[in-house]
Amino acid sequence: MYLHLVSISMFSYIFISSVNLLMASNNDTFSLANFAIFTASVTFAATSVFATFVACVFVIVAATFSLQLQLLHHR
């Protein structure tokens, strides 16, 4: 039960971080890399396999979305 709550809080924090990343993604590839490293370490800390999978999906979605925004800004 406690570990389930921890994984849920980790997931919500990752979700909020990815939303903030999408909001602030103008040119921050460095912060994107830091965000990916942070979420990888956090998901290794989370014990639930499902929470880890969902967090990885959110990282991939946020990364691709922000990269697309950067490509749009460069045009």
From TrEMBL:
<keyword id="KW-0812">Transmembrane</keyword>
<keyword id="KW-0472">Membrane</keyword>
<feature type="transmembrane region" description="Helical">
    <location>
        <begin position="6"/>
        <end position="23"/>
    </location>
</feature>
<feature type="transmembrane region" description="Helical">
    <location>
        <begin position="35"/>
        <end position="65"/>
    </location>
</feature>
<keyword id="KW-1133">Transmembrane helix</keyword>
<protein>
    <submittedName>
        <fullName>Uncharacterized protein</fullName>
    </submittedName>
</protein>
